[in-house]
Design a protein that fits this description.
single chain, 12% strand, alpha+beta, 456 residues, 4-stranded antiparallel sheet
Length: 456
């Protein structure tokens, strides 16, 4: 390649901007010494794949190294076909336009899009259909994820605008946010409770301030080609701080609703795997540019860590403790095979694998014989397997989490299922409803992410 490495992101960005949705671009890589009198810069297929991720594209096909047709033993070639995904609705071109081409005086536009990506990927159960054209999200949820994204960045003083340093010059950073400095962004998760009185008041205020910034800034300035805003909202007057603050749907919806066009919402659910890396790369580029204007250089490792979405660690303790307690009182069996379980062979399987979708919700943790868990590995059970073992799964959910003697687990089971699984009725959560949501989520992972399937 004749483009130096430092210039490749800019060159690739220009190429992508010339492509239409669904278009393909062929890139051929030469391996081996350059021809006499020529100089080239080495480039790898991995570098092209990274450039694709940073710009909302993907490598559709990659050939293995092909021998040189002129018979030069020291030369070989690799061809890659790069494609821009397209859903046919115009949603993906709109997102690419906002991410890569829109003018940005702050990182707010990118932050809102990434918030919506995170909700579409991990909290889609809180979306409500509003007619044929929109889905509604709790405004408190949008504000919560906004705070969760910004906290680690601001802690490290990574600038979010040309004149922002630390906690200055940001509209949502007021008394409430400043009072939350000792609260980890990892505690800002759906279902969390146990906040002190002062922390509850600070979080309540910070959410309100974040929502005000979101609705008056990025929601207003992310527009269609005709200038009409893409997103809209209906805010509610900020109420009093609840006596016991729990980050559940009822509380998050008390701030109002955010309306997302249906086509855009579907695109975020299906193509987050391509959309979010492009948002992250552009956000990092903006922060580096702002920092350079301030005479600062950002630590790449620290920037990467602060930008990472804090997925939960694998934590199966509550589910395992419940299974062990049931082992002492009843005959507990593997949900997949029906084999009798003991303390020695019991393992808690992530029904939808953690490696594919990092979810430690109770509904996703099933008692399994360790041999079966090893065979299943990181594969998604097929819909046939799920339906075949439906009764075993429902029985475990009922006795494990929804029994009368486990009110805390029952409440957690309902909150988590309602937040993360699609099509769960908000009024009442039953194991049958959760199983329907599980089937829909399995289909999504199978078709949208091409997750490997386990046939039992």
């Amino acid at each position: 390649m004749h483009v130096p490495k430092s210039e490749r992101p800019r060159a690739f960005r220009k190429l992508v901007s010339l492509m239409k949705p669904g278009a393909r671009m062929a890139i051929t890589l030469r391996h081996g010494p350059p021809a006499v009198g020529q100089s080239v810069h080495e480039v790898t297929a991995a570098e092209i794949e990274q450039l694709c991720r940073d710009h909302g594209a993907y490598v559709e096909h990659q050939s293995s190294a092909v021998l040189d047709q002129r018979g030069r033993s020291e030369v070989s070639w690799t061809q890659l076909i790069v494609r821009l995904p397209d859903d046919g609705t115009g949603a993906l071109p709109l997102l690419r336009q906002v991410i890569l081409n829109d003018s940005k005086e702050t990182t707010y536009k990118l932050a809102l899009l990434r918030v919506l990506c995170r909700i579409a990927d991990g909290a889609a159960g809180l979306a409500r259909v509003r007619g044929d054209d929109h889905v509604a999200l709790p405004l408190g949820l949008v504000g919560l994820y906004w705070l969760r994204l910004f906290k680690p960045l601001l802690k490290e003083s990574f600038p979010q605008s040309a004149d922002n340093v630390g906690l200055t010059k940001l509209g949502f950073v007021k008394a409430g946010y400043r009072a939350l400095e000792s609260t980890s962004h990892l505690d800002l998760r759906i279902g969390m409770t146990g906040f002190s009185k002062s922390s509850s008041a600070a979080l309540h205020a910070a959410l309100g301030d974040a929502i005000k910034t979101i609705t008056t800034m990025p929601m207003r300035y992310i527009t269609q080609a005709d200038g009409e805003p893409v997103f809209s909202s209906e805010s509610k007057r900020r109420g009093a701080v609840p006596a016991t603050l729990r980050l559940d749907e009822a509380y998050l919806a008390s701030f109002g609703e955010c309306f997302v066009p249906s086509a855009l919402w579907v695109a975020l659910q299906r193509y987050t795997v391509w959309i979010e890396p492009a948002i992250e790369a552009e956000w990092a580029r903006l922060m580096k540019r702002y920092a350079e204007g301030q005479g600062r250089t950002l630590d790449p490792m620290g920037l990467s860590q602060a930008m990472a979405w804090p997925d939960p660690d694998r934590d199966v303790r509550a589910a395992r403790e419940r299974a062990l307690a049931l082992l002492e009182a009843t005959d507990l069996r593997c949900v997949w095979s029906g084999r009798r379980l003991s303390a020695e062979n019991l393992e808690m399987d992530h029904c939808l694998p953690f490696a594919v979708w990092s979810c430690d919700d109770l509904w996703n943790l099933l008692p399994t014989h360790k041999e079966i868990n090893l065979r299943k590995s990181d594969r998604v059970p097929s819909s046939i397997v799920l339906r075949r073992r439906q009764q075993s799964i429902l029985e475990w959910w009922q006795q494990g989490y929804c029994a009368p003697e486990t009110p805390v687990l029952r409440e957690r089971f309902a909150i988590e299922a309602r937040a993360t699984l699609p099509s769960i009725d908000a009024a009442a959560v039953t194991p049958d409803e959760v199983f329907s949501g599980l089937l829909m989520q399995q289909m999504r992972l199978r078709h949208d992410q091409q997750a490997p399937v386990w046939e039992g």
